[in-house]
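Could you help me review a protein record that somebody else here produced? What it holds is a sequence and that sequence's fold in token form. I have pasted the whole thing underneath without changing anything:
=====
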Amino acid sequence: MSDPVYISEIFSSIQGEGMLVGRRQIFVRLMECNLDCRYCDTDFVKSDICRLETKPGSGIFHNLPQPLTLHNISALLHDWLMQLPAAHHSVSITGGEPLLYADALAEWFPEIRRILPIHLETNGTMPFALKQVKEYVDYISMDMKLPSTAVCTEQLWDLHALFLRECHGRNVSVKVVIGEDTPDGEIMQVCDVISAVDASLPLFLQPLSLANGAVGISAAHIFHLQELASSRLPDVRVIPQMHKLLGAL
């Protein structure tokens, strides 16, 4: 019997960020995080309630008691695939920070992967936890934290470098949230970390979304940072949070 997991919400939507932008996914958002980023729009506090969409894409939720088991999740995925047989590309395991549950996910992922490919969204600070699950993951989206936007209490460059090296050989991309205060040096540091592993990895520059819905960076500064990164890496893309533009979850 695999360990149960605390899940914040389960819903169906369009992936709005990174390499799978535009793909329809089933999102399984796990609770708890090891960081506290300024721009985070997710309530990751642990609770005894999981919000489950009553029908995929409906935006209507009901509450399930926590924690949930692999049997709960696999039954739900099978049900949603029967309702919409060809709509979903993959399952996005997100958070919070999913790798806090690496022990349980190492048991969960083989079964989930038999249903749909697995897309892991992670803050890229837990390389040893990634090692437990990466063989079952089809896509890794690493959210590299910049001091200018995340305002974390510690510099994470060394952890990010270790994490990206652990990702090597998998289908991985790096995302950074950029704001008006993001300096050239941070982008150069991102390029250094990526280049040390594989310069061909795609880098996604995501403009900061403010609480009022505005974008927290000018177009001129976006262009400047994209030009700077592109001088070091061959695949640099600018993608805002598309799901927010669509008014989707």
User: Anything to note?
Assistant: Strands lie at 7-14, 24-30, 49-53, 61-65, 90-94, 118-122, 139-144, 172-178, 203-207, 236-238. The chain has eight helices and ten strands. The domain at 7-246 is CATH 3.20.20.70 (TIM Barrel). The chain has a mean pLDDT of 93.
